[in-house]
Amino acid sequence: MGNIIQIIAKYINCCKKVRPPNRSVYINNKHPPGEVYVAEKFPNNRITTSKYTAWNFLFLNLFEQFQRVANFYFLCIAFIEVVIDSPVSPVTSIVPLVFVITVTAIKQGYEDWLRHQADNEVNNRACWVVRNGELREIKSHEIVVGDVLRVQMNHPLPCDLVMMSSHDPDGECYITTANLDGETNLKTFYCVPETRHLQT
């Protein structure tokens, strides 16, 4: 039976594993001389955890709220009471619905504003990067693929990194991943052996 499924999948070409193309990342963004270099488009290092912007808040929030069964139900009841000559005033359905939607929108707007504040704090955190042979202080959202960073002890890592060097002679570094997975134990990471001897 499994053989038949494999043959059918091969025939309709639906289960082919797609390999991503190889990518070259040049350290410190210096491409080799004499080569034609086409800059690859990598995503930026900006962190966004917020759901809304000032432009889409009203529409997205209303869309999300009316996906809830209770809100949609009361909207339908209010619509029927307005359209059909109902013995019950439509105000009895519209006022509570508007109140609930308004309070929920204010609460969600405030929570999203707090997320924007936290995102700005993380994105504007200072970090040190080597550019054109000198150490410069930049904001963490300005980091690009291929940058060489210097991370101080007890400072957060601003992005995914390959550790090239450490002050430890064995090339060890101890990192806690509490902000990712909640685990507070220190994890040991090792430098790349070829660059372990380099120091800044």
UniProtKB/TrEMBL annotation:
<dbReference type="GO" id="GO:0045332">
    <property type="term" value="P:phospholipid translocation"/>
</dbReference>
<dbReference type="Pfam" id="PF00122">
    <property type="entry name" value="E1-E2_ATPase"/>
</dbReference>
<protein>
    <recommendedName>
        <fullName>P-type phospholipid transporter</fullName>
    </recommendedName>
</protein>
<dbReference type="GO" id="GO:0005524">
    <property type="term" value="F:ATP binding"/>
</dbReference>
<dbReference type="GO" id="GO:0140326">
    <property type="term" value="F:ATPase-coupled intramembrane lipid transporter activity"/>
</dbReference>
<dbReference type="GO" id="GO:0005783">
    <property type="term" value="C:endoplasmic reticulum"/>
</dbReference>
<dbReference type="Pfam" id="PF16209">
    <property type="entry name" value="PhoLip_ATPase_N"/>
</dbReference>
<dbReference type="InterPro" id="IPR023298">
    <property type="entry name" value="ATPase_P-typ_TM_dom_sf"/>
</dbReference>
<feature type="domain" description="P-type ATPase N-terminal">
    <location>
        <begin position="25"/>
        <end position="94"/>
    </location>
</feature>
<dbReference type="InterPro" id="IPR032631">
    <property type="entry name" value="P-type_ATPase_N"/>
</dbReference>
<dbReference type="GO" id="GO:0005886">
    <property type="term" value="C:plasma membrane"/>
</dbReference>
<dbReference type="InterPro" id="IPR059000">
    <property type="entry name" value="ATPase_P-type_domA"/>
</dbReference>
<dbReference type="InterPro" id="IPR001757">
    <property type="entry name" value="P_typ_ATPase"/>
</dbReference>
<dbReference type="InterPro" id="IPR008250">
    <property type="entry name" value="ATPase_P-typ_transduc_dom_A_sf"/>
</dbReference>
<dbReference type="GO" id="GO:0016887">
    <property type="term" value="F:ATP hydrolysis activity"/>
</dbReference>
<feature type="domain" description="P-type ATPase A">
    <location>
        <begin position="123"/>
        <end position="184"/>
    </location>
</feature>
